[in-house]
């Protein structure tokens, strides 16, 4: 049986793993499913927020080497990934255009290649399954606008959430500018929105099956993880 370590961007994603993903993946055949916040997780007052790639890579490499029987994956938002300088994430600067599959693939393939180079030529690339959320974790919550509103105690906002959702092909297409990213759109409607707490409540209310049905890139990642568990 395989152990799965999910490297996450912050507390919201950590809670999503613990409350939504873990039980499902354990049922698929994993021995253990755990989440770790990337970067310096000891600075708990700074939980969340994307870190530069080199320290993130160091964390993942160390975990893979310490536990040769584990598989590692990530949950990080495409929105906000560093594009330039020493902290840039591989592939992010070249990931442009409207096709989310191509943008996500550009980053994920580059991450796999970069980490594999640091692990050495004998590294089994099947042990690292990078996943970049398009474009932001909050986009997944638009998979069911009624459940989203109900979960955060604002059923009156269902129609507002629906109008946002209907502008795009899928929830994963809700874009990533500083003004129109999913979290910004939510905060405009719910100024007191508390991302870790309310985001987890919403994901639980919506359910994994609904998110999977509405978000094809997310679904592809989950399919991959399930197939690894069954090997």
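-> sequence recovered:
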């Amino acid at each position: 049986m395989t152990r799965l370590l999910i490297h996450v961007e912050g507390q919201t994603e950590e809670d999503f793993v613990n409350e939504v993903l873990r039980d499902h993946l354990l049922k698929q055949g994993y021995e253990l499913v755990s989440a770790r916040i990337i970067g310096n997780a000891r600075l708990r007052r700074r939980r969340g927020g994307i870190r530069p790639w080199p320290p993130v890579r160091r964390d993942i490499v160390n975990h893979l080497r310490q536990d040769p029987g584990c598989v590692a994956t990530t949950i990080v938002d495409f929105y906000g990934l560093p594009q330039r300088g020493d902290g840039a994430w591989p592939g992010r600067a070249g990931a442009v255009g409207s096709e989310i599959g191509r943008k996500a693939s550009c980053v994920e393939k580059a991450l796999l290649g970069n980490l594999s180079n640091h692990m050495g030529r004998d590294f089994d690339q099947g042990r690292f399954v990078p996943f970049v959320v398009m474009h932001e974790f909050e986009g997944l919550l638009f998979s069911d606008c009624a459940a989203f509103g109900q979960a955060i105690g604002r059923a009156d906002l269902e129609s507002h959430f629906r109008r946002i959702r209907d502008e795009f092909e899928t929830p994963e297409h809700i874009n990533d500018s500083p003004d129109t990213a999913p979290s910004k759109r939510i905060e405009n409607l719910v100024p007191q929105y508390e991302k870790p707490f309310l985001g987890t409540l919403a994901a639980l209310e919506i359910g994994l099956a609904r998110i999977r049905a509405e978000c094809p890139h997310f679904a592809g990642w989950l399919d991959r993880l399930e197939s690894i568990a069954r090997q």
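Residues 100-119 form the longest helix (20 residues).
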